[in-house]
Design goal:
It contains 15 helices and 13 strands. The chain is of the alpha/beta class. It folds into two domains: 234 residues, 3-Layer(aba) Sandwich (Aspartate Aminotransferase, domain 2); 104 residues, Aspartate Aminotransferase, domain 1. The strands form three sheets. A seven-stranded mixed sheet has the order 2-8-7-6-5-3-4, sandwiched between helices. The chain has a four-stranded antiparallel sheet with strand order 9-10-13-12, covered by helices on one side. α10 links the parallel β6 and β7. The longest helix is centred in the C-terminal third of the chain and has 20 residues. The termini are far apart. Bound molecules: pyridoxal-5'-phosphate. The site of pyridoxal-5'-phosphate has 11 residues, from α5. The site of pyridoxal-5'-phosphate (PLP) has 11 residues, from α5. Its cofactor is pyridoxal 5'-phosphate. Keywords: Aminotransferase, Pyridoxal phosphate, Signal, Transferase. Pfam families: Aminotran_5.
Length: 399
C-alpha cells in the first residue's frame, strides 16, 4: 500500500489538465530555449530597466500565469473582475490592467477625450472637427520622453512653469492636467496645488507614478489625494509581467478608457493588448507586493548593498556612497567612483569587463569613472558574486 507521501508523488506526475491532443506523446524533457537561442543572461545589479527586461516574476506570479493559461475566459470579464480587486486595494473607484504604464497614459487620456462616445473612440487620434479637447498641460520640469504616450492620442502638450502661466493656459481646449511624480521636485507646483487648481477649473488630472513603488503606500496615496487617474508600471518593483501596468481612478474614466482597449478594434489601443495571463499575473504580483514585509525587503537590500560597498571600497582609489532616491526607484543605490589616476579604467571599460565575465553582470554607468548599483533585482547570494568580481576588476586595473 502506498503511504500518503507516495500517493502525492504519484499524483504529481499525472497531468492535471487534459491535453489538447488526444494522442499526445509523453512529454519530452523541456528545452532550455534561452540557452538554445544563445541569449546572454546576467546578474542584474543595475535595476528595473526596460532594456534589461524589467524584473523577474516571482513563483506566485508564474503560478498564476500558468493557471490562467489553461482555460478560456472572456477578456472583458477578466479585466472587470481583476479591476474590481485592484481598485479595492488601491482606494480607486475602478482599475484596469494595461500594457505597461505607457499604455495606461495613452488609454487614460483617450478615455478623458472620448467619454463613452463610440464615434469619438473611433476618430482618435484625429481630434479636429470632433468636438474633442486637444491639449494636455504639464510643468516644464515634468517633461520626459514618455509624454509621447499623451501625444499618441492626437493631443499637443502645453508647457507651463508658474501658477500664473497655468491659470492662463487653461482653456476650453484643455483635456488634462498631467503630473509626473518622479520629477515633482522639478516643478514649482506641488501635487495638492495641482489637484486643487484642476478641480476648481473642472479639468481632469493624471499622475504618472511608473517607477514610484515602493513605498507601497504610493499605490493609494494619489487616489486618496484626488487625482482622477493614476498610472503605474507592473513590471518594475512590483515584479509583475514586464508588459503590464495599471490604470486606476474614477469609474467613468476607466469605463471610457476601456472602450479604446482590446477586445475592441477600430481603436488606438488595439495594439496594446494584455492577455489573460498578464492580467491575472499582474493581480497576483500586486497581491504579493502589498502583503510583503517591506521592512524586511529593505533590510535585505541594505545588507546586500553593504556587502558590495565593503568590497569595492577596500580597493585603494575607490570611494563609495549610498543614497536612497526619494521619489522613484526608491531603493538603496550604491555609487562607486574611482580616481582614474590610480585605477586605469573608464566606466565603459568596467562595464565591459563585468559584462564579459562569467557570470555576466550588469551595472549602470554614472559618469566618466563611476557606476551605480542597486541590489533589489538580485537573487539571494548574487551580491557576493558582484562584490568579488567588482573588487577583482578594480584591483586588476590599479596602477
Ligand atoms: C518606466 C516608466 C514609464 C513606462 O512604463 P512601462 O510600464 O514600461 O510602460 C512611464 N513613465 C515613467 C516615469 C517611467 O519610469
Amino acid at each position: 500500500m502506498l503511504n500518503r507521501r507516495q500517493v502525492i508523488k504519484k499524483l504529481s506526475v499525472v497531468p492535471l489538465i487534459g491535453s489538447l491532443e488526444s494522442n499526445a506523446a509523453p512529454p519530452a524533457p523541456p528545452i532550455d530555449w534561452v540557452k538554445d537561442l544563445g541569449i546572454r543572461t546576467f546578474i542584474n545589479a543595475a535595476g528595473t530597466y526596460t532594456s534589461m527586461t524589467g524584473s523577474l516574476m516571482p513563483d506566485e506570479v508564474m503560478l498564476a500565469i500558468r493557471n490562467a493559461s489553461t482555460s478560456f475566459m472572456m477578456l472583458d470579464d477578466v479585466q472587470t473582475k481583476v479591476g474590481e480587486r485592484i481598485a479595492s486595494i488601491t482606494h480607486a473607484e475602478a482599475a484596469v490592467v494595461t500594457a505597461g504604464c505607457f499604455s495606461a497614459l495613452t488609454l487614460g487620456l483617450a478615455g478623458v477625450l472620448t467619454g463613452t462616445d463610440q464615434a469619438k473612440v473611433e476618430a482618435l487620434p484625429h481630434l479636429e472637427g470632433t468636438g474633442m479637447k486637444s491639449e494636455v498641460i504639464m510643468q516644464k520640469g515634468h517633461s520626459i520622453g514618455y509624454s509621447h504616450a499623451l501625444t499618441n492620442t492626437g493631443c499637443r502638450i502645453i508647457y507651463i512653469e508658474t501658477r500664473e502661466e497655468l491659470e492662463k493656459a487653461i482653456s476650453e481646449r484643455t483635456a488634462l492636467m498631467w503630473f509626473l511624480n518622479i520629477q515633482s521636485d522639478k516643478g514649482q507646483i506641488g501635487h495638492e496645488e495641482w489637484v486643487t487648481i484642476a478641480k476648481k477649473k473642472g479639468i481632469p488630472t493624471m499622475i504618472d507614478i511608473a517607477a514610484d513603488v515602493p513605498p507601497v503606500e504610493n499605490l493609494w496615496r494619489f487616489n486618496d489625494m484626488g487625482f482622477d487617474l493614476v498610472c503605474v508600471s507592473g513590471g518594475k518593483a512590483m515584479r509583475g509581467p514586464q508588459s503590464a501596468g495599471i490604470l486606476m481612478g474614477k469609474k467613468h474614466l476607466i469605463e471610457a478608457a476601456r472602450l479604446s482597449m482590446p477586445p475592441r478594434g477600430s481603436t488606438i489601443g488595439r495594439g496594446m493588448k494584455v492577455n489573460k495571463e498578464e492580467i491575472i499575473g499582474m493581480y497576483a504580483a500586486l497581491d504579493r507586493f502589498v502583503k510583503l514585509d517591506q521592512k524586511k525587503e529593505w533590510q535585505i537590500w541594505e545588507q546586500r548593498t553593504a556587502t558590495i560597498e565593503n568590497a569595492a571600497k577596500s580597493v585603494s582609489g575607490v570611494t563609495t556612497k549610498v543614497t536612497h532616491p526619494p521619489l522613484g526607484n526608491h531603493t538603496p543605490t550604491l555609487n562607486v567612483a574611482w580616481d582614474s589616476s590610480k585605477i586605469r579604467l573608464d566606466t565603459k571599460g568596467l562595464l565591459e569587463k563585468l559584462r564579459n565575465g562569467e557570470p555576466s553582470i550588469e551595472v549602470m554607468g554614472a559618469g566618466p569613472a563611476a557606476i551605480n548599483i542597486t541590489t533589489w533585482m538580485l537573487k539571494s547570494g548574487e551580491e557576493k558574486i558582484v562584490a568579488s568580481r567588482l573588487k577583482e576588476v578594480l584591483s586588476q586595473a590599479a596602477r
